[in-house]
Amino acid sequence: MEPEYRGLGRCAFCFWLAVAFDIVGLLVLLVGVFVNVFFYDLLIYAGAIVIFLSLIWWVFWYSGNIEVPPAELEDDVGLLKKDKGGFSGAMSRLSSRVSNTIRNSFRRNGGPSSTRTQRSAAGPTLAPLGEQVVVAMATMTPHEDTPHNTVPSVAVRDVA
Questions:
Q1: Within the chain, what is the greatest distance between any pair of CA atoms?
Q2: CA atoms of 72 and 66, how far apart (whole Å)
Q3: What is the pLDDT of residues 38-53, one digit of tens each?
Q4: DSSP structure string for 72-117
Q5: Of residues 132, 104, 99, 129, the one with CA closest to residue 114
Q6: SS3 label, residue 150
Q7: What is d(CA 80, CA 82) in angstroms, rounded to the nearest whole number?
Q8: What is the signed CA dihedral for 140, 145, 148, 153, rounded to 10 degrees?
């Protein structure tokens, strides 16, 4: 049995934190407006920022108290009923089939998946496909005009 929440709901901590941020922000803002100090502008801006940050806690409190019946969550969290028939069931099956086909074609053709690697004739793994970059670097000393190569030249290989 689910506990029954009254008054502030499930997220009372977020509620009280939002109220505290509002009170502190308002006090700092009012001190900046009405007290004669040389850094009044800092207090006004700080108070406004603290009040703005209280919105985070208000959103947490509000969204934590939203109640959605399980019947409305079926499609969103994977509780899809398997006995769906008719047009919506056919569209759901078609959609999942198309998305699985696209996902599998990316895996076969070396798309977003970075698990494929290139192998040489001897067998050890050289580098992941699509990620091998050859960079030629040269060092120059202030008194010389000819560069000294620090990376040996790399022969171009055919990728199968």
A1: 83
A2: 13
A3: 999 999 999 999 999 9
A4: GGTTTTT---TT--HHHHHHHHHHHHHHHHHHHHHHHHTSS----E
A5: 129
A6: coil
A7: 6
A8: 110
Report the pLDDT value the prediction gives residue 27, as an integer from 0 to 100.
98
Tokens of 86: 């008719």
Question: In terms of Cα–Cα distance, which of 83, 62, 65, 66 is closest to 74?
Answer: 83
Q: Is the pLDDT of residue 78 over 80?
A: no
Distance CA 54, CA 129 (A): 48
Q: What is the DSSP letter of 53?
A: H
Tokens 């970075």 appear where?
A: 114
Determine the Cα–Cα distance for residues 101 and 79; give it in Å rounded to an integer. Answer: 22
Per-residue pLDDT of 7-33, as tens digits, reads 888 889 999 999 999 999 999 999 999
Residue at token pair 């509780």: 79
